[in-house]
Design a protein that fits this description.
By secondary structure, this protein is of the alpha/beta class. Strands 1, 2, 8, 9, 10, 11, 17 and 18 form an eight-stranded mixed β-sheet that branches. Strands 6-5-13-14-15-12-16 form a seven-stranded mixed β-sheet. The chain starts with a strand and ends with a helix.
C-alpha cells in the first residue's frame, strides 16, 4: 500500500470523519488514524443534538443513531425550585454517539478514505510541500494534515479552558422519558452543572463537570439518592474556553475540539465541530485541486462567520455563571418563573444559545426584574441589551 496521501487525518471523531468524508468525496486520497480500535469508542459525549444540525452535517436521522426524542427539559435551582421548558419544537434528540461517528466514517470509507484504527500519530514534520507523519507502526507523507485529536491538541494552546467531566450510564427507577434534567448547585460544581440525559425508558447518561476532587463523590451520591444503578463509567476533559485564535498552521489544519469548536456553556461540539470538519474538508479539496494553500483561510472565515458571535456571548455567560453563588441562582429562577421565559424559549434554538437570550428580552418583566437582583445580574442585563442592539 502507498504511504503517500493528499490528506492525513488524526482522530476519527465527528469532526475528523467529516473532514475525511468531504475530502474523499472530492476525489482526494485520505488516510485516517485513531488511537482506539473502534470508531466512536469510548463515548465521551452527552450526545444531545438537533435534527436540524444532523441535516447540516449530512447525516440521516435513523433509529440506529437516535436513542431518544427529547420533549422537555427540567432545570433545578439549588434551593429546589424547578423550571420546565417545552422542547418539542426544538427537535432535539439523544444520540447513540458511537453510531453517529460510525455513520460518517462509513460514508468517508465508501468515498475512498482509508482507516487505520489502533494507530497513534507520534510526530509531524512539515516540509515545503508536504507533512511527514510518524505513527506507532509506520511513516506516511501527506500534502496536508488534519488534527482532530481534541483535548491532546487544545490543551497545548489553552489549558485554562479545560474542565474535568465524569459521566455514568445508569438505570433509574424514576426516569421521566424524553426529559433532560439539569441541576445547578455550586456545592456540587462551581464551574458547571449536573445533567441527566435519557436514552430509553429506564437508562440515562448522568454527569457532572468542573474542577476539584469532589466531582465523583457528588455524582455518585446523587445517583445513590435516586436509587440508580451504574452500568458504565466515563472520565474525560471537556473544552469550555472557546475557539483558538487560528485553525490553520501551515499545512496543519485543526478541527473540532482540537480547534476549540465546542460550546463554552455546555461543551457540546457535535454540530459546531462537525461543521468545522466539513468546512475544512471542502477547503482542503479546493486548495489541493487549485494548488493554492491560501484557500484554506476560507475554512476559518466560514466557521467564524457562522459561530463566533454566538460563542462570544456564551463565553461572557460562562464568566458570569462562575461568579454566581447559589443565592444568586435561586433569585434568578424566581425571576424566570415570574416572567414569560419558559414560553419564550419554546421557539428558541438548541444550536445557537445567543438566540435564546435574545428571546428572553421579550419576556415580560424579565429585564426589569434583573435590576433588583444586584450588580452581577446587571452585567447580564447589559449583555442582553448589547445583543439586542446588534
Amino acid at each position: 500500500m502507498s504511504h503517500e496521501f493528499d490528506v492525513a487525518v488524526a482522530g476519527a471523531s465527528v469532526a475528523g470523519n467529516s473532514a475525511a468524508r468531504q475530502a474523499a468525496e472530492a476525489g482526494l486520497s485520505v488516510i485516517v488514524f485513531d488511537d482506539d480500535l473502534e470508531v466512536g469508542t469510548p463515548e465521551k459525549c452527552g450526545g444531545l443534538v438537533s435534527l436540524t444540525s444532523l441535516k447540516q452535517l449530512g447525516v440521516a436521522p435513523s433509529s440506529r443513531i437516535i436513542s431518544e426524542n427529547i420533549r422537555s427539559a427540567v432545570l433545578v435551582a439549588p434551593g429546589g425550585k424547578t423550571l420546565e421548558l417545552d422542547a418539542t419544537r426544538l427537535g432535539v434528540v439523544a444520540l447513540r454517539r458511537r453510531e453517529l461517528d460510525k455513520a460518517i466514517a462509513k460514508e468517508a470509507a465508501r468515498a475512498g478514505a482509508t482507516y487505520h484504527m489502533g494507530e497513534r500519530v507520534l510526530s509531524l514534520e512539515e516540509k515545503e510541500d508536504s507533512v511527514k507523519v510518524a505513527t506507532s507502526t509506520s511513516h506516511y507523507e501527506a500534502k496536508y494534515f488534519v488534527d482532530a485529536r481534541g483535548i491532546v491538541t487544545y490543551k497545548g494552546f489553552r489549558p485554562e479552558g479545560l474542565l474535568q467531566a465524569i459521566q455514568y450510564e445508569c438505570v433509574f427507577p424514576d426516569l421521566r422519558r424524553g426529559t433532560v434534567e439539569v441541576l445547578f448547585d455550586k456545592r456540587l460544581s462551581k464551574e458547571y452543572f449536573l445533567w441527566v440525559i435519557p436514552l430509553d425508558p429506564i437508562t440515562a447518561r448522568v454527569g457532572i463537570a468542573g474542577k476539584g476532587n469532589l466531582l465523583q463523590p457528588s455524582l455518585e451520591s446523587y445517583i445513590e439518592r435516586r436509587g440508580g444503578k451504574t452500568i458504565k463509567k466515563t472520565f474525560a476533559s471537556i473544552i469550555v474556553g472557546g475557539p483558538l485564535d487560528k485553525f490553520v498552521f501551515g499545512r496543519k489544519v485543526l478541527v473540532g475540539d482540537a480547534a476549540g469548536q465546542t460550546k463554552p456553556i455546555t461543551a457540546g461540539g457535535i454540530f459546531s465541530g462537525g461543521v468545522g470538519g466539513k468546512m475544512a474538508g471542502e477547503a482542503l479539496a479546493e486548495a489541493i485541486t487549485k494548488g493554492d494553500r491560501g484557500l484554506l483561510d476560507g475554512y476559518e472565515r466560514s466557521w467564524r462567520n457562522q459561530f463566533e458571535k454566538d460563542f462570544r456571548v456564551q463565553l461572557a455567560l460562562r464568566e458570569l455563571y462562575v461568579d454566581l453563588g447559589n443565592d444568586d441562582i435561586d433569585a434568578l429562577f424566581k425571576v424566570l418563573a415570574r416572567s414569560e421565559a419558559a414560553e419564550r424559549l419554546r421557539d428558541g434554538s438548541f444550536d445557537y444559545h445567543s438566540i435564546n437570550l435574545l428571546r428572553l428580552l421579550g419576556a415580560k418583566g424579565f429585564l426589569d426584574s434583573l435590576l433588583v437582583l444586584g450588580k452581577r445580574f446587571q452585567r447580564l442585563r447589559s449583555l442582553l441589551t448589547i445583543m439586542e442592539r446588534k
